[in-house]
Specification:
By secondary structure, the protein is α/β, with parallel strands linked by helices. It has two domains: about 10-155, Rossmann fold; about 160-345, Dehydroquinate synthase-like - alpha domain (Dehydroquinate synthase-like, alpha domain, Up-down Bundle). The protein contains 13 helices and eight strands. It has a six-stranded parallel beta sheet with strand order 1-8-5-4-2-3, sandwiched between helices. Strand 6 and strand 7 form a beta hairpin. The longest helix has 23 residues, at about 185-210. It binds nicotinamide-adenine-dinucleotide. Nicotinamide-adenine-dinucleotide (NAD) binds near residues 96, 97, 125 and 254.
Length: about 350
Amino acid sequence: MEPFDYEALPGRVIFGVGRRFEVGDEADRLHVSRILLIADAHDQTMIDQVSDALGKRCVGVFTDVAQHVPIEFAQKVRDLATSLGATATVTLGGGSATGFGKAVSLSHNLPQICIPTTYAGSELTPIWGLSDGGHKETGRDLRVLPKTVIYDPELTIGLPISIAGPSAMNALAHAVEGLYGPSANPFMSAMALESVRVLATHLPLMHESPTSMEERSQVLYGAYLAGAVLAVVGMSLHHKTCHVLGGLYGLDHGRMNAVVLPHALAYNKPAIPEVYERLSAVLGGDAAGKLYDLARELETPASLSDIGMPEEGVRRAAALIVKEASSNVQPINEEQAVAFLTNCAKGERP
Ligand code: NAD
């Protein structure tokens, strides 16, 4: 066995149907009483429920959430936190809402309680992101690691397949790249493979029975495992590509993940024969092909062209990907990056 390092991250997780109503108790545990609730605006009932559960502790609500945390929006939420004298944030929503809470934690050093409603996984990571013009800056800082995460499957019951599918592919990407990323280790690999198994088994069942709380719970659990892996293992070609394309063209994060993952895995295959075999065993066939098939089953777009990537963008993005993915497990030069991106742009089965 290869030697490895593993640094466990702190954090409390509570998981279960209806547990969002315990958010006030969780705030008390952290001894915080002036809370800014940051929520994406997809469901006012959910916002009201969480705000009511916080009671007087909730001193303000911010809903002006946008994807990739544009710096000018981040400034608005930071100013609001200052003017309210907030001592903590509660975030409710997908990775974008979580990202806004992290922006506040980074500037104000405030604790965050996170109630995710998608499968993005950001709630478990110390990674922040801010975008400014065509560039997305990211960094790692323990101040942005949420102190408590409340997973409540009930909040995902209305998640339509158009959001659930891409978001779940994003979770799968965390698990898959966690098997060969820079700090991969056997403990994380066990979690990553379990995440892939749970997601690949239960996503089609959830798609068939979208109101089944058991299936929604299983998928959220699989995404939780994937997020825990993302938090520890550095990511590779797939995530670097999504990062570059998100910054350059503002493409939707989940849909981009759904398109890129099978191609990134196929590209990396020669460098990771053992991992590829284990993944294929869990997925019941050639891993890259099976992920592509699962993405089709979940009705996600097949190609970058389908999600708004300009054709002439391939070369520009390729040059950046070569820089960003310099530590990828399978080395990549500009010509190879162009070929890889062209495959993603075409969207054929790898
Ligand atoms: P998102 O947060 O932008 O949400 C996508 C859409 O889903 C939004 O319109 C939102 O209103 C809606 N939505 C959310 N929950 C819903 C629900 N339960 N029912 C119906 N609609 C719902 O997208 P996302 O994919 O969750 O997150 C993407 C963002 O997260 C990106 O900016 C990405 O970079 C970031 N991210 C960061 C990390 C990290 O570790 N820092 C990890 C993963 C993703």
